[in-house]
Amino acid sequence: MKHLSGASALLVLLAACATEENPPTVSRSDIDRAFDAARDAAALPVTPSSQIPTGTVTYDGQIGADLTGDSLGSVLADMTMRVDFQNNRIGGRVDNINLIDQDGTPDQLLDGSLEIAGFENNGDLDAGASGQVTAVGSSGTALDADMNLDLDGTVRTDRSRGDTVYGGVTGDARGDFNLDIDGVFYGERR
């Protein structure tokens, strides 16, 4: 990891080497697979309201996003989204949040997770994910930030009705480090 002086020393660094304290849990091939899966989900047709699933469906997938702010690069995280179509509620969790440096090399795992909560309406998804995450700074110190994401998307159909979710993710992390986040989420029915 490279070291910066002054106020910049508190920044999360996305260096070419992974931190020893929080090594990443993804590889470059995981990143490529997630990109391909998100691209495929984006191409699927939106599920018509007459074919929206009933009951509660759990979708497993990922969030991939570009990062700007104190650090440049991207993030890849696991997402589990539960959609209760009967009561129009969304819940779930985002975890295994990995920072990736600008050249696509996994850098470090952020400690912490985000809780998802929101609403579903005829296949439209409007949710938020929030929680505290901890990164390792340039001096090896723990740096905390509150991460808040907006997840807006739709239920889509691949092989069976409403078996996929896809949408956009925007948000930020604010605290000991500050990031702006812009990307996508996708998930497939469990």
Radius of gyration: 17 Å
- Indicate the multimeric state: single chain
Shape: globular
Helix/strand order: HEEEEEEEEE
**Beta strand count:** 9
Helix content: under 10%
Low-confidence stretches: 1-19
What structural class is derived from the secondary structure elements? Answer: mainly beta
What is the annotated CATH architecture? Answer: Beta Barrel
User: Count of helices?
Assistant: 1
Rounded mean pLDDT is: 90
- Say what the CATH topology is: Porin
Estimated share of beta-strand residues: over 45%
How many domains? The number is 1
The first-level CATH class is given as Mainly Beta
Straight-line distance between termini: 38 Å
Largest sheet: 9 strands, antiparallel
Task: Explain the overall architecture.
The chain has 190 residues and is mainly β. The chain has one domain: Porin (Beta Barrel), CATH 2.40.160. 8% of the residues lie in helices and 55% in strands. It is built from one helix and nine strands; from the N terminus they run αβββββββββ. Strands 1, 2, 3, 4, 5, 6, 7, 8 and 9 form a nine-stranded antiparallel beta sheet that branches. A hairpin with a 3-residue loop joins β1 and β2. It is globular. The N terminus is likely disordered.
Topology summary:
Layout: H1 28-42, E1 56-69, E2 73-84, E3 89-100, E4 106-112, E5 114-121, E6 124-136, E7 142-156, E8 164-175, E9 179-189
Antiparallel strand pairs: 1-2, 1-9, 2-3, 3-4, 3-5, 4-6, 5-6, 6-7, 7-8, 8-9
